[in-house]
Amino acid sequence: MKSEITDERILFERRCRYNPLLGLRPQTLRSAIDAFEVGYISKAARIWEKLESTDDTVIAVRPKRRKRVSRLSWQIVPYGAAGEETANAHAEVLEDFYNNVAWTDACEKHRVGGFSRLVEAMLDCIGKKYSVHEIVWNPQPDMRRLRATFKFVPLYFFENTTGNLRLLRTPNAITGDELKPNKWLVAASDEPLMAACSVYYLFKQMSLADWLVFSRRFGSALAWLKTNEPEGTPKWQQMAEMLANIDNESSFITGDADTLTLLQVSGQNAPFKEIIEHLTRRVITMWLGSDLATMSSQDGAGASLQGESGAMLEDDDCLLVEETLERTVSRFVIRYYFGDVEPAAFLQFQRTDRSDKRAALELLGMSADRGVAVSQKAWREASGIAAPDDGEPIIEKAQTATADAFGSSFAGNETDDIAELSRAMTGDKKQKFLDELDRIDAMTDASQRADALVALEKNLGEFFDGGDAEATALFEILKKRIGNEK
Fold this sequence. Notes:
Elements: H1 7-15, H2 26-37, H3 42-52, H4 56-70, E1 74-78, H5 84-99, E2 102-105, E3 112-113, H6 115-122, H7 125-128, E4 130-140, E5 145-153, E6 158-159, E7 166-167, E8 177-178, E9 184-188, H8 193-218, E10 222-226, H9 234-244, E11 251-254, E12 259-263, H10 272-288, H11 300-338, E13 345-349, H12 357-369, H13 376-383, H14 415-424, H15 427-441, H16 446-458, H17 468-485
Parallel strand pairs: 2-5, 10-11
Antiparallel strand pairs: 1-13, 2-3, 4-5, 4-9, 6-7, 7-8, 10-12
């Protein structure tokens, strides 16, 4: 399908290009914003586009806001009452289409990409209210396949005097042509952030200019020469020449004694820095929903609210892209493959996981410990651990050897040695020894347990009837236990 943004149109635009920030004043900016609101959007769009590559704050925050969504994973989700088979068929077609999307910039043809670049460019509407792509469809009937290239077109190629964007065929045109159905992808937000950002930019530039003038005039000391010599006398003339040799554009001579004073003007009360920082924070907050870099991180409630604000913006941006693609692109693709039917699947972004997994797992574990039944599904959803596929090898639970031959809860790794020793001991002695081991095992303090084992070693004679073999075996076992406990 032929593109409506021709090389001649781009060449004409470049030849008429100018810098809209030169001579920008509050009156001209207000006029451009007012014109935008009634549909003549070209002038404001040019100013905002230039600011996006000029204002240091916008350069930093604008990509973060747009890439927050463009980097999310996505999936095609079946829905509706069309039936599982139909929904799966629609989902398969949409997944194939969006995985093979091509994107480019109409005026900068070396800027190319795929679906992520398309999403990022669609969110240009956050700043300018509208984002426009020309859709160049590429049907492939022999393979029964549909492909498309989305060409990002600058907003100053359009006007909006009738409530619908219309294409301007020349840079100086006032009235544009209607956009053809299924040929254009238009994303729209509620309010353009760049309107406020451009006002803040202008105020920041004015404050910065005043700050520079202040620094130039008062950044160095003012020379003040005092003398009682009459004006015009040789001594007065000599002192005036000396003052002129001081490298400073500001100096003066007064009467009352022969002294030279350097006056330093204090800039502590100058508001320039505070104004610039305040406006910068406002821009960051508008784009990202928070200004965590400059606000106290110790205020837990404040940090939580700021995080919620950023999450809300991300959700809104996801919905904007999802609904715009569903209304304009997905519907056309489904009808190309299946005829005049309603789509039974849609594209959905996988939102950033903001849940507190540790807290959720602790709650589930505490519930299970208190006898509340917890399903594996709930545990997997909270932990993010997927169920294994059929026949897939699984990790077995680690097994710990216990002293079963003792009938005791005292755990050990040398079960065979302990069993051998147990058989050599008499019944009463054996039970007494097992009881002592149970008592030591029940201790919660590691150092206390180690001391008890040392004491047990010293009183081995109380637990066996004699014999070097038994004593030696028991001593070696206890040495290992004491070493492990320490």
